[in-house]
């Protein structure tokens, strides 16, 4: 006959084992649900879109015009073309992930004041642009805008500019062509870096439907490359920009400016940034 204490201990350990297994199962189930939700809504994190009606009227200082392209059925691409009074060329500006040209169009003055036109597209689902989102579609759209621009501007008078998410469009475009220069503000080597920084507890590599492998595309770039990044960037880790810079071919002119107190969206506020950008816009080198 078993000792009563043994029976009590056996029952206790069985209870603990059952509770532990039940807890682990519940945690695993919850983790799976979180992963599923992340996979389902990730576009809302990556692309913070703001739509505008086709009839919306922009109001910016200086001359500008709207450009509409329809490269495929059910796809409408929209951009603003800002004109400088005495032009040195055109900056093809790929903006960040949030808002629309209603917000980003204000940035054009930074270039037009220095004699550069600015062609600034909205991505699919942003502003007046329409179409189904995918990484391949965004890359194709960026190429369409570059091709359109080369019909109006010589390639050696085009600077491709990518701001944060916009680097994911700017780098492949520059890699496939021969613009005057490639300028990247707060860029990433790939989107996995940003995801790891924000969602490190999730299997982000398996869940992400967007990679934006700038670190691979930039190896094919033949024009000068200028990278600006803040060490305190809470969205795109500084180390990601370092990896991107390391991937730039040694055969091209390259420079990386680090801002010790810089965050993600404040780099234009630094005098050093403005000074170097003035040099780039003045010489393209």
Write the layout of secondary structure elements.
Blueprint: H1 4-46, E1 48-49, E2 64-69, E3 77-82, E4 89-94, E5 98-99, H2 101-104, H3 109-112, E6 116-122, H4 135-150, E7 158-163, H5 167-176, E8 181-185, H6 191-198, H7 204-207, H8 214-217, E9 225-230, H9 238-247, E10 254-259, H10 271-283
Helix pairs in contact: 4-5
Describe this structure in words.
Helix 4 (135-150) crosses helix 5 (167-176). The model has no long low-confidence stretch (mean pLDDT 89). A hairpin with a 7-residue loop joins strand 2 and strand 3. Strands 2-3-6-4-7-8-9-10 form an eight-stranded mixed β-sheet, sandwiched between helices. The chain has a two-stranded parallel sheet with strand order 1-5. The protein has two domains: 1-46; 50-283, Rossmann fold (3-Layer(aba) Sandwich). It has 285 residues and is an alpha/beta fold. It has ten helices and ten strands.
Largest sheet, in brief, is:
8 strands, mixed
How large a portion of the residues is in β-strands, by DSSP E? Answer: 15-25%
Using the coordinates above, name the CATH class of the largest domain: Alpha Beta
- The CATH superfamily of the largest domain turns out to be Alpha/Beta hydrolase fold, catalytic domain
Helix content: 40-55%
Number of helices: 10
